[in-house]
Specification:
Length: about 400
């Protein structure tokens, strides 16, 4: 839902609307740190090495990538490789990645961290292996960097690679066009990930996970689907992603059958609360829900979002039972009432004078409403104000 400059994303562990178990968060955690890469065991050392690349290991990528690393740490023939940039790479090379978390702290020591400043360096490090392919490429960047994704992941992909893009907004149309059209990237499947988490990069290599943590994933494109239908997938696509995250016990994971619906469901929080926060110059969510006028405005934006979402779902041929229910807005509001002084992603970007995720988080939703003939006057006003801040401070 939300991604701040340090990629803070949070959504309700209480809501039950679209995906019934969307926010279950009770799970156990094994914090054993006694093993090392040299202590990994395997019944068959001749197995090929399974490789997982984490591209964009910031607040969100370091957390989920780190949890995957935990789950395979004592398993031979599996490597989790981290793409880190600039001072983040320099720091982590000497100090590793340190994560404080409500679900248990962990550290990836520098002698166990496979860190690379470029994706080409990742590839070069394994080019002499008899099978240098990457099984998974997990991208965790802001949607303002979407156009960088094809060039970043192209060296890592093969026809058997599965790509998971954890990112905010309605990105799938442009992402698939970039991958399959402009770059001609071949891969087994492309997944869209929605990180329902509050995770903040406090400093290079230091991550704080303070709330939620659910990861919801749907399929955007499948090479095995018999047609190019919207978000079509086959059972093997679901099994592959479920198998990847099944051993990652600290991360509540859910497969979303309908990625388009999931994206719009998240927008029911993102559009009103990120939007109003920035339109008001950067205020916390408690001030939005606590002010009668802003609370009413949030309801209006959610009404418009639900109307647009259901029109979009209908256009793509999905039945009414897959539409967003009207009570979605009340559940979103109830959750936000309990959130406290939360700072939405675009608010933090505005205050830090960093690029805001305007295009895919706001403008794409507004344009889609216009194309569908759905009136959204309140959303249109919010987006106009957000774009004005973006122009004024050059936050592109």
């Amino acid at each position: 839902m939300m991604a701040i400059h340090h990629q803070i994303v949070v959504l309700s562990i209480l809501l039950l609307g679209i995906a019934p178990a969307f926010f279950a968060s009770a799970f156990s955690l094994d914090l054993s740190t006694s093993s090392s890469k040299t202590q990994k065991t395997s019944a068959n050392n001749s197995e090929r090495t399974s490789r997982i690349a984490i591209v964009g290991a910031g607040a969100v990528g370091s957390y989920y990538g780190g949890r995957i690393w935990e789950s395979v740490r004592s398993v031979s023939n599996t490597e989790v490789m981290f793409h880190l940039r600039n001072e983040h790479y320099d720091h982590c090379l000497d100090n590793g990645i340190s994560v404080t978390s409500i679900d248990g702290d962990f550290v990836i020591p520098p002698d166990e961290l496979l860190a690379y400043p470029t994706t080409e360096d990742m590839v070069n490090s394994v080019k002499d292996d008899h099978d240098p392919a990457f099984d998974w490429v997990i991208v965790a960047l802001k949607s303002s960097s979407l156009d960088e994704v094809p060039e970043l992941i192209k060296p890592l992909t093969s026809p058997q690679t599965r790509v998971l893009v954890i990112m905010n907004g309605l990105i799938e149309d442009d992402l698939i066009e970039m991958l399959r059209g402009e770059q001609g990237i071949e891969c087994k499947a492309v997944y869209g990930g929605m990180a329902l988490i509050c995770s903040n990069r406090l400093s290079p290599g230091v991550i704080d996970h303070s709330y939620a943590g659910k990861l919801v994933v749907g399929v955007a494109y499948s090479a095995d689907a018999n047609d190019d239908g919207y978000c079509k997938w086959v059972e093997s696509d679901k099994k592959a992603i479920m198998d990847l995250f099944e051993p990652v016990k600290p991360v509540p994971f859910e497969f979303e059958d309908n990625l388009l619906r999931g994206r719009w469901w998240k927008n029911c929080w993102n559009l009103p609360f990120n939007g109003i926060s920035v339109a008001m110059g950067g205020i916390t969510t408690d001030r939005i829900v606590g002010d009668p006028s802003l609370r009413k405005l949030a309801y209006k934006v959610m009404d418009e979002t639900i109307a647009t979402a259901n029109a979009d779902l209908a256009k793509h041929g999905f039945p009414e039972e897959e539409f967003l229910p009207e009570d979605t807005k009340e559940k979103m509001m109830v959750f936000t009432d309990t959130m406290g002084e939360y700072k939405p992603s675009t608010m933090l970007d505005l205050h830090a004078r960093k690029p805001m995720e305007v295009k895919y988080l706001f403008k794409t939703a507004l344009d889609r409403a216009a194309n569908l003939g759905v009136p959204v006057p309140h959303l249109e006003t919010l987006v106009s104000q957000i774009e004005a801040f973006q122009r004024h401070y050059n936050l592109y």
